[in-house]
Amino acid sequence: MRKIDQYKKEIWKLVVAAENEKEAKMLLEDLLTPAERDAIAERWQVVKLLSEGKTQREVAKELGVSIQKVSHGAAWLRDSKGFKYFLKKLS
Questions:
Q1: Which distant-in-sequence residues (6+ apart) come within 8 Å of 65 by Cβ?
Q2: pLDDT of residue 26
Q3: Is there a contact between 60 and 70 (Cβ–Cβ < 8 Å)?
Q4: What pTM value is reported for the model?
Q5: 46 near 70, Cβ under 8 Å?
Q6: Contact yes or no for 57/63 (Cβ under 8 A)
Q7: 70, exposed or middle or buried, with CB in 10 Å at 0-12, 13-18, 19+?
Q8: Mean pLDDT in each 10-residue stretch from start to end of the chain (91 residues)?
Q9: Which residue of 3, 17, 41, 65 is most buried, as measured by CB atoms within 10 A?
Q10: Rounded to an integer, what distance in angstroms lies between the CA atom of residue 29 and that of residue 90?
Q11: Helix (H), strand (E) counts: the chain
């Protein structure tokens, strides 16, 4: 196993170890820059709104992001098992 893969595995374990929202927030605030946290939050909103049936143009307008970013979001949603799993889990 490559070193970076071992490092990523540790990150997954850290995420799983967070027992509640407060702990998850504490971890992610230390682990990620504010810009990275914003990008992740925005990505989630793009995927969530697309999954609700909004058009790419509607999502772009609502979030104030580019059509290109929303198009990427459509691909993430189409090609990802994780987004679909968690959208279902949280609904």
A1: 42, 46, 59
A2: 97
A3: yes
A4: 0.85
A5: yes
A6: no
A7: buried
A8: 94 96 97 97 96 97 97 92 92 85
A9: 65
A10: 22
A11: 6, 0
